[in-house]
Every structure is written in C-alpha cells, then in structure tokens.
Amino acid sequence: MDAMDAMDPEKRPMLPRAGEGLSQPPPGRPTGRKCQGLVWFLVVLAGGLLILSGAPTSCLHSGLGLFAGGSDVFPAASSHHPPAAADAVASSHSIQSRSPATIAPADVTTSAPAPARTVLQCFEVDQPVLLPDGAAESDGSSRTFDGYAEKPCTVLLMRRDFAWSYNDPFIGKYTPPSCKFNRVVLNFTSVSHGRQFDRLALMYFGDTEVWRTSTAEPTNPPGIAWTYLKDMTEYLYFWKSPQTIIFDLGNLIDDKYTGIFNTTMTATFFYSDVDTATAPPSDLIIPISARQGANNAVSQFTVPRDNATNTVRDFPRNARRAVFSVSANGQGLEEFWWSNVLQSDIWTFNQTAGQLTGYSPFREVQVLIDGQLAGVDWPFPVLFTGGVSPGLHRPIASVEAFDLKEHEIDISPFLPLLCDGKPHTFTIRIAGINDADASAAAALTERVDESWYVTGKIFVWLDDDAGSVTAGDKPTIQAPPPVLTITHSVLQTANGTNETLLYNTGVKRGLLISARVVTQRGADTVSWSQTLTYTNKGRVSGFGYNQVNDLVISGTDEAAGFTTPPYKAAYRYPLFANSTYAVSDTGNLTLWAHVVQGKQVEVSGASVFPDGLEAFGGRARFVASALATRKEGVAGFYQSGDGKNSSGWGTADQTFRFGGVSKGGMLGDAPDVELYFRNVSAANGSVLYDFKRRWGAGKTEATALSGEEGKGMADLRAEYAAVEGEAGRGAMRVFMGRNDYKGEA
C-alpha cells in the first residue's frame, strides 16, 4: 500500500447486531487497530465515492424546538420514525428506542431534464457580526444598513490556492491602514470542487495564533463555496502595527484527491462608538506556542509529541489583569475523543473489531503556571465537515466548524507571582482517564493518544504608570482532584464472545484560585473559579462495530476582583451520536449516522472575546448575552453488492437563538430580549426552509427577514435510486481516526 492509499480514512466502522437480518462478522476474525482490513476499505471507499460523486445531503424539517435552559432531556422527540432495526439511541439519562428517517424510492420517473447544478453555498449558523454599516449575517448573506460616521477601509490580507500545502503556509505582510478604526472584522471566503477531505486551518500573527477554522468538503464541479465573518477586535494590539501573517491550511493534491481550496481573506477596519461590557482590547498579548514565526513556520504544539511549555522571562511588572486563552482540538486518533472507550476496555473486541481508542471519552485541557494548576478547559466536541458522515454537514456546517472558539482563564490571581521579575513557565497539558491499573483507582492521565493541536496566549492589561510594580500575596489554590464515576460491563454471546460493551463516565471538578493583589489602582481580592460536570453514556455493540454516545459537558466560570463588571460564563454542550454500518446477505453496503448537537452559552462582564451584543447596541441595552442552538442530522450512503449502484443522502435541521439579558434581568434567566433567531432545514445540498428573525439596531420588534421553502420532500424522493436487497440498517461506528500525509488530518 502506498502512502496515498493510507490517507484520510473517514471514521471508524462497525457491523450490525445479531438478529437484524444482516450478515455478521465471524467472532474469531482478526482485525487490526481501529477496525482495519476489509471494514476500513469499505468505509473509505464509500466515503470517497460520496465525496467524488458530490452525493447530496438532505435535511428534514422536523419542527425541532430549541432545548430549554437547564433541560436534561436530549435529544428531544422529532419526526423520525423507527424501522424494523433498533436504533439504540440514548437520551441524557436513559437509553431509548430511536431510529433514522428514510427516503423512499420514487414510484414514477419522468423524462424532464435535470436542473443545472449550481455552486453549493455552505454556511455555519451563527449570530450576526457588527460591520461599519450595521449587523451582518456571519456567512455574509445579508446585512442591515444603519449608516456610519467614519469611513471604513478594507485590506486584502490573503489570496491563496491551497493545493499541496503541507508545511507550506501562506506568508504575508500586513501594514495598518490609514483610516481611523477601533474594530476589525475578517471575511474569509473559499471555493473548491473535486474530491477532498476537510482540513484544519490556523492563522497566526507571528508566533501567536489568532484564529482556528476548518474547511467544508467539496463536491464535483461546480463545487462549493462558503464565507465566514469573524470579529477580530480583541487583537487590536496586533492590528495597530505591522505584522507577519501566517495562514496554515495543510492540503494535498493528486489523481485521487483533487480539491484545491481557493481562498481570499480580507479585513474591514472601522470606527464604532458601541459600548460593550466586554473588556477593552488588551495592552499586550504574549504567545504560548512553539514560536516558529521567525522561520515562517506554524507555531502550534502537537501534543503529546511536544512539551507544550514556554518560559516567559519578561512578564510586565505593571500588569493589572491577565487572561490566558487556550485553543485546542483533537486530530488523528483524538479527533473523536468523546467516542473513546475506557482504557481497561480497549481490547474488549480484539478478536473482531480490533483495538479501540482509549483513555476514556473525557478530555481536560489544563493550564499550569510554574507547575501549578491555573484553570481548565473542557473542550467543545467539534464535528468537522467530514465528521461521522459527510452528508450531515452539507450545506449546514456543524457548530463551530468554521470558527473553533477559544476558552479564557483569568490568571489575575497569579499576578503577584508573575510580576516579581523572574522567569515563569506556562504549560498546556491534555488529560484523559486511565482506569487500567488494577492496583490503583481511576485517575487523570498526563498524556493521551496522538494528537492535539494546542496554543495559548496571555492578554495583559497594564497600569498607566510604567514604573509601578504589581504586588500582593501568592495565590491560594483550591483544586482537589476531580471526582470520577466510572461503570462498565460486557455482554457475551452463548459461546463466550464479547458482543456488547456498556460504559458510563462521569466527572465533576471544582476549583478556586484567589489572591490579594495590589496595583496602581489599589488593593483587592482577585479570584478565579470553575465548576464543571461531565457525563457520557456509551454503548459499543455488534462485536465491536456499533456505537452510541450521549454526553453533556457543562460548566460555570467566574472572575471577580478588579474585573469590572465581573466576568461570568455558563455553558452546556450536549452531543448525541449514533452511527451504523451493515452489509446485507447480497453484499449491499449501508452506512447511516444520526447526530444531535447542541450548545448553550451565557456570558456577562469583561470577556476578552466579543459577546455578540456589539451588533445590537451593546451595554447600553444589555448586561449579558445568551446563545442556544440545536442541530439534528441524519445521513446515509448505499452501495449495491456489485458496486454498480450507489447513492448518498443527508438531512439537517438547526434552530439557533441569540438574545440579550436586559439590565433588569439576571444571568441564568431566559433571554428577555430575542435579538436573532434562525430555523433552517436542508436536504441534499438544497435549503428547504430558512426562517430568520432579527432585532436590528434602532428597532424595537422582531421582524421576519425570510421564510422561503425550497423543494418539498416528495420532490426529493425522485433523486434516489433503490438499492437492491436493502434489508434494513444495522449499526455502524463511522468514527474513524484519519491518517494523512502528516499522520493527522
């Protein structure tokens, strides 16, 4: 096998349970790690055909309601009806019966010519962004003109075709524009066609990462296009002076992978007098990275290969506030960390599916200062546009796929230590859980599998007097080990072969770090606290080839002291994923996946990053922002046993609500003012329904901006051919790590 044949297998496969009328894997069949061999080949072939054919995805409008704050039931009921095969879908607290929606073959055909294909416009649903002429959709599709007092200016930052671009990032020189500005918004636009997998992209100013995004997966010509608008005002420290821009989008091109990403990135600079509760841009930004910018190279740490540590020797002694932001996501074997099994269970299906990935389905990103824990990030489980099943993400990308958010940790309680004029170390570490040591209780690890891309940065605000020295007491750190709750059991067949693994993982952590800090402005007790909870119910069945995971990550972060107004963030990340793989007696291949993903975030106070209220009047109207979104998708791929017929489909429905809490409200309440609402459904690359409601600047009532429907589901049925012998759907684990040119995607 050459290197090309080993690249980018799209998610790990599994086979159906007994009793579903589908052929079973021989219990004694040896396979390699991550379900290699024939299963790998079939899934890679199917994924490749789906991409190469531009097989459309589809999206059922099921009238899904937005999950209510504090609700523990996830996913909610929808219009999917069960077929004969069990779906084994777990709710947040129990396993229930749930199954996929299907699209029936057409009863009649017509000779009418097929409509000409147009460029598929992909997008991520997000709240509007403030531009000089008013609020604009994050995908650039519409905006509200409110006029502007200061003339804006736009600068071209990058135009690059990323073909074979591993270890070949874009390098550009940035010079500040002459117009007056205090806000900056990026516009990143890309087009592509052909066959290609999703790619991660990182943007740097020198050594400092400032944005992390990923690509959509292209289709046959005319292909795809997408735009994402990103508020980058928090980086005014960089925008005010010349910089070296490094934009890394590793891609490959050959006779098999043909998709080139043609990209353009501009920045719009403008002045706005909007008053926000978020922190003003910092006076200094210190990178915590591999620091390769001087070599025109990327600066992310690859963990666990790298020791993600920097020693800072010149931390400013007159600092009055410091916030560490961390950017981290799994790649390769760690892309689907949330689907991993307990370390003690990785060999459960060694005779059938092979070794599974371990260290548990829990990950913690730790930030340490001089070896002491300063804070943690329990990462959002990002699904890239090839994740689980590509049909889930066309044209609606999953939450955060185009804008991987960073997590902020206020390290101000460490200022008396950091401002002493001595060198100090900053470390980023990725932890999982190891329960495989029979002589010890389960505990956090100091390493996981390959690999995580991580960087950090420190936003620093300074006292006006450059000669002042921040003093005070060393921080008091209350950070007991997290409470781990783990259960697991294995069900066997009559002959003693392992058939089903059930495992539950629960984690709770609390920490409080405080110190008396003395700055030019006086003395105060400064604190940083976090309270976090994690649950994940997993089931691996069918001799190791079926998987369901139902998880919820939730937390509350608070900073108090000099921070005015005090910073608080509450977040909840539910994710349900079920994927299936089945081969009928006649050799027909069926892939199917069902994913429900949610995100709830409420932010008040002096956040480093924009809170989204900028486009709606800022602090003059609201004291906190509240975002809640829920996306549900179903996707499938079919191929006949003779390989002559294949088809793919996918559905997605997303509801998104963004609101503000007025000065009379309290964080944790439902938003008392809805500022932006969107409900969108898509099927096979066509948007069926897209309803938007926005409360624009100067308006007092919500208005419907659009509510157009696309093709009805009856029309869509004509686009699918029947697959001979389709006997039902087993369960398949489509989660596969990717092995690419660099060993990572």
UniProtKB/TrEMBL annotation:
Signal peptide: none
Pfam families assigned: PNGase_A_C (PF25156), PNGaseA (PF12222)
Keyword Metal-binding: no
Superkingdom of this protein's organism: Eukaryota
InterPro entries (UniProt xref): PNGase_A, PNGaseA_N
Keywords for this protein: Membrane, Transmembrane, Transmembrane helix
Domain Peptide N-acetyl-beta-D-glucosaminyl asparaginase amidase A N-terminal: 148-471
Keyword Nucleus: no
Region Disordered, annotated ranges: 1-30
Chain segments annotated as transmembrane: 37-55
Protein name per Swiss-Prot or TrEMBL: Peptide N-acetyl-beta-D-glucosaminyl asparaginase amidase A-domain-containing protein
Species: Lasiosphaeria hispida
